[in-house]
Amino acid sequence: MIIGTAKESYRADEALLTTKPQRVWMAIFLAFLVIVPFSVNDYWLYMVCLMTINVVAATGLNILTGFTGQVSLGQAAFMAVGAYTVAWMERDLGTPFLVNLVGAGLAAAALGIVVGIPSLRVKGLYLAIATIAASFILHFVFVHWESVTGGNTGINVAPARIPGMELTTYFQLYWVIMPVTIIMVVAAANIFRTRIGRAFIAIRDRDISAEVLGIPLLQYKLMSFAIASFYAGVAGGMWAYFFRVVTPESFPFMMSIFLLAAIIVGGMGTILGGVVGAVFMTITPELLRFVVEWVSPWVPNAGTLLSPVRTIVFGGLIIGFLVFEPQGLAEIIQRVRRFFRLWPFRT
Amino acid sequence: MRMSDAAALKVAGVTLSFGGVKALRDVSFEAKAGSITAVIGPNGAGKTSVFNCISGFYRPSSGQVLLDGQDISALRPPRRAALGIARSFQNIALFRGMTVLDNIKLGRHAHMKTNLLQAMLYSGAAAREEEALRRDVEERIIDFLEIDHIRNMPVSVLSYGLQKRVELARALAMQPRILLLDEPVAGMNREETEDMARFILDVKEEWGVTILMVEHDMGLIMDISDHVTVLNFGEVIAEGLPAEVQADPHVAEAYLGSGDPAALMKRLHEEAEH
Ligand SMILES: Nc1ncnc2c1ncn2[C@@H]1O[C@H](COP(=O)(O)OP(=O)(O)O)[C@@H](O)[C@H]1O
Ligand SMILES: [Mg+2]
């Protein structure tokens, strides 16, 4: 049959990693992730887990805002929904932790669909305001629905358990958080290999003609909200197992801005962008802390400067990327890659 | 497929108003299955508005649109697309950031089945569907329209003529029964126009698609259309075979206010040129 070779080439073309160097680098990176927990101290393991949780939340937001063009400042509130769901399921249902994580995602997704309903009518800034409003309403619920949320004092979360073991150390939790994150990032990348991802991008670029091409706008906008919130919910659920207590202040509104900044800095509308953005934005304040510690012998009161310096650097990064590199870190990485071509695995 | 007497598409008494302005008044015409019907008329006559009513973009205040005898007036645009109404736009509505290939693939959306869970897992079913789509787009559409060399380029870097061709490709990916082409050769040079004319004829003859086409290029209309409908100020003022319409003094009057068909031809050629 003539089709034989053609078939293979199309399948290879549609693969997630299309070149050999890409596959080799990915294997090296995965091996690195396996080694990490054995080679760093607890502080850095804490940082890595935090980054990883943020990667999930940022990737979800990227699907909604970067790929579908629906600006949301509610991602942190959906993380909170996920965290509370885990806390409540642990306390009142005692279900296994993987079930609780899925429950966290589904609860957040259900609320995400509700919050997404205005998106058919309002866009851009107005939609952003609607998602902010939803965040504040949810905050109000967390404070006042005491029978479930524990009010202002919040809920303590039992440790995640597998048969015969409680996962309490960062080392143990890493082996849950990292695999879940990898699965979710790969799933996100997969979406954009299919008609669903193409539909999201079409809605972002020209929603009216998307409709004439056969894409029902409301259904797909709500689906995008549901996915983004599902990711936030799972991220929040992992956060709950990581910090073991959830209060109304665990996920401040600032966190939503942080996540939006992460995808802007990383690169909106690329999966890589959400990942590197979240990593970069999580680690930057810590690097600043080292800088401040390092200069403290020479600069009096360096410690008190830390917080304002962080804020300024944070703001400066967002503005800098918006102005000079609107495609974000992901685009810089692509340029470097093009520079090295297929190095060192030239074929 | 050969032309038959059955109307594949029927516009019946469509009236459309914007505020107080009537863009269309009681417009009726039909496109026979397997034929090319041209809709002509001066700028502002309501040609694009008719297309928008057919694709569901505008809601007429009265009248109906029938596809193979079925009233589709109440359906939203995505449903109509799924039923086989595809279109290209007068001012090109491609997704500029996407590649040519992705733009074309987008056209198949309504006929695909992959759901969210299958997409996230890139399950066997999803992979097979994507692969089948890729093969169909490559082997039936990209080859046919001779756009192999640009398939991986973003559309934003393409010439106007090529963008029009990509739009046709995307419309064909929709597996249309009715293809609405809004000024498919506007702004093209002679050679590009001839290529496009050949593609449109091939789509009719080899794919058996019924075509409805808005055009100013009278030469093209005379060459390839089977039937012509003339709109002026939102009303149908003439229809018939291309030669009949061309000779109709009402039509010339609509364009020029005179009864001279030769002047009409000249005017139409001028309009086509800019
Ligand atoms: N969205 C709209 N809002 C207001 N008026 C419109 C709109 N679309 C078209 N019109 C009006 O309807 C009439 C017909 O326009 P159109 O269908 O674009 O004409 P054609 O395609 O024949 O040049 C024009 O008078 C135009 O101004
Ligand atoms: Mg027009």
TrEMBL record, chain A:
Q: Give the membrane topology, semicolon-separated if more than one.
A: Multi-pass membrane protein
Keyword Membrane annotated:
yes
Give the superkingdom in one word: Bacteria
The listed locations are:
Cell membrane
CDD domains, per database record: TM_PBP1_LivM_like
Q: Which Gene Ontology cellular component annotation is one that this UniProt entry carries?
A: plasma membrane
- Which positions, given as ranges, span the membrane? 21-38, 44-64, 71-89, 95-117, 124-145, 173-192, 222-242, 254-280
GO MF annotations in UniProt: branched-chain amino acid transmembrane transporter activity
Keywords noted in UniProt:
Cell membrane, Membrane, Transmembrane, Transmembrane helix
Please identify the protein, giving its name as recorded.
Amino acid/amide ABC transporter membrane protein 2, HAAT family
Q: Which organism is it from?
A: Lutimaribacter pacificus
Q: What does the record give as the organism's lineage?
A: Bacteria, Pseudomonadati, Pseudomonadota, Alphaproteobacteria, Rhodobacterales
Automatic annotation (TrEMBL), chain B:
Boundaries of every ABC transporter domain copy: 9-258
Q: Does the keyword Transport apply?
A: yes
User: Which terms in the Gene Ontology molecular function aspect does this entry carry?
Assistant: ATP binding; ATP hydrolysis activity
Please give the Pfam families that the UniProt record associates with this protein. ABC_tran, BCA_ABC_TP_C
One GO CC term, this protein: plasma membrane
- What InterPro entries does this protein map onto? AAA+_ATPase, ABC_AA/LPS_Transport, ABC_transporter-like_ATP-bd, BCA_ABC_TP_C, P-loop_NTPase
Instruction: Write out the entry's keywords from A to Z.
Output: ATP-binding, Nucleotide-binding, Transport
Q: Which PANTHER family match?
A: ABC TRANSPORTER ATP-BINDING PROTEIN, CONSERVED COMPONENT OF ABC TRANSPORTER FOR NATURAL AMINO ACIDS-RELATED
Q: What is this protein called?
A: Amino acid/amide ABC transporter ATP-binding protein 1, HAAT family
Q: Which organism is it from?
A: Lutimaribacter pacificus
Traced from the root, the source organism's taxonomic lineage reads: Bacteria, Pseudomonadati, Pseudomonadota, Alphaproteobacteria, Rhodobacterales
